[in-house]
C-alpha cells in the first residue's frame, strides 16, 4: 500500500485516479504529476516501484499544497474573513450561503434540516 502525503492511496487503481484521493489534487494536478515523474497514466499503483512512489512523493511535497497544510490555509482564510467582519465573513459566521444563492427556499446544505415554526399550519 502506497502512502503519499499522509494518505493511503488505493493499490488496485490507476495512478492517475489514485492520486486524486489526496485532498488538493484533482484531475489536472494528477496529470501534471504523472507527466513530471514520467509514469504511464494507465499503470496501476501496485505496479509502481518504491523509487517511483518516492519520486511522486517528492514532487507533491515540493510543488503542491495538500492535505493538512491546504485545510489549514482554507480555514485561516475563512477565519480572516470572519474577523474582518466583511459580508462574506458574516455569511460564514451565520452558516448561510456565501456566494449569493437564494435562501428563501433551498440552501438546506448550509442551513441544516428544516426547523418547524409554530402557527404556520393552515
UniProtKB/TrEMBL annotation:
InterPro entries: Rbsml_uS13_C, Ribosomal_uS13, Ribosomal_uS13-like_H2TH, Ribosomal_uS13_bac-type, Ribosomal_uS13_CS. It comes from the Bacteria. One of its GO terms (molecular function) is structural constituent of ribosome. Pfam families: Ribosomal_S13. Keywords: Ribonucleoprotein, Ribosomal protein, RNA-binding, rRNA-binding, tRNA-binding. Residues 95-122 are annotated as: Disordered. GO terms for cellular component: cytosol; small ribosomal subunit. One of its GO terms (biological process) is translation. HAMAP family: Ribosomal_uS13 (MF_01315). Part of the 30S ribosomal subunit. Forms a loose heterodimer with protein S19. Forms two bridges to the 50S subunit in the 70S ribosome. Located at the top of the head of the 30S subunit, it contacts several helices of the 16S rRNA. In the 70S ribosome it contacts the 23S rRNA (bridge B1a) and protein L5 of the 50S subunit (bridge B1b), connecting the 2 subunits; these bridges are implicated in subunit movement. Contacts the tRNAs in the A and P-sites. Belongs to the universal ribosomal protein uS13 family. This is Small ribosomal subunit protein uS13. The lineage of its organism: Bacteria, Pseudomonadati, Pseudomonadota, Alphaproteobacteria, Hyphomicrobiales.
Amino acid at each position: 500500500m502506497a502512502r503519499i502525503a499522509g494518505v493511503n492511496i488505493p493499490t488496485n487503481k490507476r495512478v492517475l485516479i489514485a492520486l486524486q484521493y489526496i485532498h488538493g489534487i484533482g484531475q489536472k494536478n494528477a496529470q501534471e504529476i504523472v507527466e513530471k515523474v514520467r509514469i504511464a497514466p494507465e499503470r496501476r499503483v501496485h505496479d509502481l516501484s518504491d523509487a517511483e512512489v518516492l519520486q511522486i512523493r517528492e514532487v507533491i511535497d515540493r510543488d503542491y499544497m495538500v492535505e493538512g497544510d491546504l485545510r489549514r490555509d482554507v480555514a485561516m482564510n475563512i477565519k480572516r474573513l470572519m474577523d474582518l467582519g466583511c459580508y462574506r465573513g458574516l455569511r460564514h459566521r451565520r452558516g448561510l450561503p456565501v456566494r449569493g444563492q437564494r435562501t428563501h427556499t433551498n440552501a438546506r446544505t448550509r442551513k441544516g434540516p428544516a426547523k418547524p415554526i409554530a402557527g404556520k399550519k393552515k
